[in-house]
Amino acid sequence: MPKITYVTHDGKSHEVEAAVGTTVMENAIKNSVPGIEAECGGACACATCHVYVDEAWREKAGEADIMEADMLDFAYEPKESSRLSCQIKVTDELDGLVVYVPEKQA
């Protein structure tokens, strides 16, 4: 199973195994990663699962589509590397993915 590392704003790393086909958000919730609230449950209707994708993984994780980009307008301190973790599907190619959780969610 692919591994994902979530780095919280305080610098703590949380490495989890993620099933292919799930989302980065689902794995954060399942493994109680602090800072991922996911209030809409993954419907891309809020920005409470906002993460920053590590620069080395941005291309593989892909870019936000139009709907996701609109929701990122509501995220806390969005950056070029911002994504909603509910919109990143886990694939074998994302084994080793690193994402950073912002200090707070919108």
Topology summary:
Layout: E1 3-7, E2 13-17, H1 24-30, E3 50-53, H2 58-61, H3 66-72, E4 82-84, E5 97-100
Parallel strand pairs: 1-5
Antiparallel strand pairs: 1-2, 3-4, 3-5
What do these coordinates show?
The protein has 106 residues and is α+β, with helices and mostly antiparallel strands. It has one domain (3-100): Ubiquitin-like (UB roll) (Roll). It contains three helices and five strands, in the order ββαβααββ. The protein has helices at residues 24-30, 58-61, 66-72, and strands at residues 3-7, 13-17, 50-53, 82-84, 97-100. Strands 2-1-5-3-4 form a five-stranded mixed sheet. The radius of gyration is 12 Å and the shape is globular.
Largest sheet strand order: 2-1-5-3-4
Mean pLDDT: 97
Low-confidence stretches: none
- SSE series: EEHEHHEE
Q: CATH top level? A: Alpha Beta
> What is the CATH topology descriptor?
Ubiquitin-like (UB roll)
What is the overall shape? globular
The end-to-end distance, rounded to whole angstroms, is 31 Å
Which superfamily, in CATH terms, is the homologous superfamily? Beta-grasp domain
Which bin fits the share of residues in helices? 10-25%
* Beta-strand residue fraction: 15-25%
Tell me the total number of β-strands: 5
CATH architect. name: Roll
Query: What is the quaternary state of this protein?
Result: single chain
Contiguous helical run count: 3
Cα radius of gyration in angstroms = 12 Å
Structural class: alpha+beta
Whole-number total of structural domains: 1
Q: What about the largest sheet? A: 5 strands, mixed
